[in-house]
Structure formats: C-alpha cells, structure tokens
Amino acid sequence: VQLQAxxxxxxxxxxxxxxxxxxxxxxxxRVAMGWYRQAPGKERELVAGISSGGxxxxxxxxxxxxxxxxxxxxxxxxxxxNSLKPEDTAVYYxxxxxxxxxxxxxxxxxxxxx
Length: 114
Hints:
The protein has 114 residues and is mainly β. The protein has no helices and 11 strands. The strands form 2 sheets. Strands 2, 4, 5, 6, 9, 10 and 11 form a 7-stranded mixed beta sheet that branches. A 4-stranded antiparallel beta sheet has the order 1-3-8-7, with no helix packed on it. The protein is globular and about 40 Å long.
C-alpha cells in the first residue's frame, strides 16, 4: 500500500484545513486508515482513525473539531480540521493498517500561527 498525502499549510488560529490521503491498490476498502501527527519534541500520536467499515475514533484533543472520512471509490481518506489551534501544529502522517502490516505516507506540515 502506497500513501500520498496532501493539504498541509499555514493557517491562522480558528481557521480550517483539509488533509487528503490517496492510497494505491485495489484493497483500500478493506484497509483501516488513520491520521497521526508529530509535533516538535513530541512522540507521534493518533489523531483520528476510520475502520474499513466506517467506524471512527478521535483523540480527545480534536473531538468536535476534526472529522475523518473515507471514499472507497477514490481510495481516499480525508481529515477535515476546523477551529484549528496553535497546538495542532505538527507534521501529519497518513496511516494504513492491513493484515497486521502498517504503512505510512510522507508527512505533511500543518502550521497554525497568527
């Protein structure tokens, strides 16, 4: 599984940003997907995940602000990020898990600053 992420950038606090990740292969509908992030000096953490069946889970810090979704027709998983805060600043990574194997896309930088 190869993952290609896009959509990072610089925004001001309170603004929105949408990250997208496109996966290669024909097995996407059977793959659990997620977004992780890593801020400077911190460990990588789960932001949001979505199962192959569409069940979602979120980090407490982003609940109510971020929404993860998937489009199996386009092999894409999206992360809609609203009401962004400076503490959301990090490199965001797309992740896929299939048959116990973990796959990572390259990171995309999100910077929230006034």
